[in-house]
């Protein structure tokens, strides 16, 4: 069966989130008159990552994440700040960052010319992701963009993928691929929904989870051989 529907994760797959986060945090911390920016970043990044993982596991809600992550950051450095205010400032700054990895634009251009239907499937905050896409060079390649915040369910929840399937005209799971960097959110989510998956693993991480992707690629260039050659061996 030929693949037709390509469901792309955004952050860490197409978007250079590390660069976007670095830029946005720098702007925010300067506004907050923080002098030791590197120390704040060193604390914030793993904390934020852990909170998003907790969200994927349904251990916390999106509202808790948004309201507490910056309050926790400033509290760690003995400052009392309005976490929600700084969350809104971060949304503003991060929403301006549309950097993508090298080869992303040419990849999406090639896939579009090969008549694949491209969709974005992202866990994130609606205003941030929509603004970042608008600032990026890739928004026009996607027929639809599915954001967890707007849907009300987060990957890997099967309800997220059921929503995607229902929203895409003539969608068939056997003709679809989920492409993403996160074994839990992207690969487990796709597998649970009966969709083949591509684990984008540029850092060559060891898979320590009982979650096996249909394909594993180390570079985005390899995706072309997966979808064009259809080698599932």
From TrEMBL:
The GO terms describing molecular function are: 5'-nucleotidase activity
What is an example of a Pfam family matching this protein? Answer: HAD_2
Query: What InterPro entries is this protein classified in?
Result: HAD-like_sf, HAD-SF_hydro_IA, HAD-SF_hydro_IA_YjjG/PynA, HAD_2, HAD_sf, PGP-like_dom2, Pyrimidine_5'-ntase_YjjG
Give the signal sequence positions. Answer: none
Q: Which NCBIfam families match?
A: HAD-SF-IA-v1 (TIGR01549), YjjG_YfnB (TIGR02254)
Q: What is this protein called?
A: YjjG family noncanonical pyrimidine nucleotidase
Please name the source species.
Streptococcus zalophi
At the highest ranks, the source species' classification is: Bacteria, Bacillati, Bacillota, Bacilli, Lactobacillales
């Amino acid at each position: 069966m030929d693949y037709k529907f390509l469901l792309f994760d955004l952050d860490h797959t197409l978007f250079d989130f590390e660069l976007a986060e670095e830029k946005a945090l720098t702007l925010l911390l300067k506004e907050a008159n923080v002098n030791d920016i590197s120390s704040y970043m060193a604390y914030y990044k793993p904390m934020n990552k852990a909170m998003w993982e907790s969200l994927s596991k349904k251990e916390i809600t999106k509202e808790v994440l948004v309201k507490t992550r910056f309050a926790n950051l400033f509290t760690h450095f003995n400052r009392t700040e309005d976490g929600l205010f700084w969350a809104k400032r971060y949304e503003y700054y991060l929403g301006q960052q549309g950097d993508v990895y090298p080869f992303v634009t040419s990849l999406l251009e090639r896939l579009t010319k090969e008549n694949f239907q491209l969709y974005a499937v992202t866990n994130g905050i609606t205003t941030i992701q929509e603004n970042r896409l608008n600032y990026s060079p890739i928004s026009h390649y996607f027929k639809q963009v599915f954001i967890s915040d707007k849907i009300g369910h987060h990957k890997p929840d099967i309800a997220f993928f059921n929503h995607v399937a229902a929203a895409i005209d003539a969608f068939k799971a056997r003709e679809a691929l989920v492409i993403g960097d996160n074994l839990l959110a992207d690969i487990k989510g796709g597998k649970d929904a009966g969709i083949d998956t591509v684990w984008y693993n540029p850092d060559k991480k060891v898979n320590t989870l009982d979650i096996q992707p249909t394909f594993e690629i180390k570079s985005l260039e390899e995706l072309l051989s997966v979808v064009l050659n259809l080698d599932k061996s």
